[in-house]
Amino acid sequence: MSTSHTDLIESFYQALQRRDGAAMTRCYHADAHFRDPVFDLRGAEVGAMWRMLTTRGKDLEVSYDSVRGDGDAGSANWQARYTFSGSGRKVLNIISARFQFRDGLIIEHNDSFDLWRWSRMALGISGLLLGWSPMLQNTIRKRGAAGLAQFIASEKSTGQ
């Protein structure tokens, strides 16, 4: 087991628990790629997403387990409890993470979760009825991308 990679993953999730998006950003390689059912991001966008989520997630609670760092790969399972700002509804997202490393940092990060399950909690009846559909899932992705673009623009305008 690669202790340094395991320690990096532990540091990453500890920063998420503290809602410290800047510390999370430092865990990524400059050429990092992040992918989940909502986002597909590269480079600086990856850190911006975490800074956005940790800034906006006022009641975010994170737990994690099963951290492994073997050679150039790693994994963890984690859960996020928070109020979805778009609806005010409570969400428990159960996520499986896979990592690849380069130069002692995360170069690839893939989070897997059930987007339909998430949409039922976050969106209520519309998520229940349509959360499985590509149409609603694409709308969720577009809103996520728009929110991130707005956050990045606000960081630039304030010099962060």
From TrEMBL:
Q: Which domain of life is it from?
A: Bacteria
Q: Which positions fall inside the SnoaL-like domain? A: 9-109
Q: Which InterPro entries match?
A: NTF2-like_dom_sf (IPR032710), SnoaL-like (IPR037401)
Q: What is this protein called?
A: Nuclear transport factor 2 family protein
Pfam families attached to this UniProt entry: SnoaL_2
